Amino acid sequence: MAEFNPNTKTLACVAQIKEAVKAHGLDPKKITTSRDAAAVKLRTEMKCTNVPEGFTKWQLPVFLEKGSLMYISIGNPGVSVPEQFT
After folding, report:
1. pTM for the full model?
2. How many beta carbons lie within 10 A of that of residue 24, not counting itself?
3. Residues 6+ apart with CB under 8 A from 82
4. Is residue 1 a part of any domain in this protein?
5. What pLDDT, in 10s, does the model give residues 20-49?
6. Which residues span the domain enclosing 37?
7. For a Cys-Cys bond, which of 21, 39, 48, 82 suits 26, CB 3.0-4.6 Å?
8. How many structural domains is the chain composed of?
9. Higher model confidence: residue 55 or residue 34?
């Protein structure tokens, strides 16, 4: 893993989110669940690699017009984060 930097994404990536949503045929005005086929594909495409070992993180394919990005982060049971990352 490269050096951990949780802030590699900027609001400039909103264009990437819009492209990904369009490419997978998602309608931002309709409800999409994590079980929708397009959402499953996007989860793989939007997986973040800049996380400590034992964690998984995905950027959600949504954004707020006021400038906010959303993520889901999951830590394995019993995983610890080195002090430098806390």
Report:
1. 0.60
2. 17
3. 52
4. no
5. 888 888 887 888 777 888 888 888 888 888
6. 11-76
7. 21
8. 1
9. 55
In a domain, 85, yes or no: no
Q: What is the pLDDT of residues 67-82, one digit of tens each?
A: 677 888 889 999 887 6
Question: Is residue 55 domain-resident?
Answer: yes
- Using CB atoms within 10 Å of the CB of residue 81, give its burial: 0 to 12 exposed, 13 to 18 middle, 19+ buried: middle
Q: What is the mean pLDDT of residues 42-66?
A: 81
SS3 readout for the chain = CCCCCCCCCCHHHHHHHHHHHHHCCCCCCCCCCCCCHHHHHHHHHCEECCCCCCEEEEEEEEEECCCEEEEEEEECCCCCCCHHHC
Residue 6 has pLDDT above 60, yes or no: no
CB atoms within 10 A of CB 46: 19
Q: Which strands sit side by side in the sheet containing 68-75, from one edge to the other?
A: 47-48, 55-64, 68-75
Q: How far apart are the C-alpha atoms of 57 and 47, rounded to whole Å? A: 6
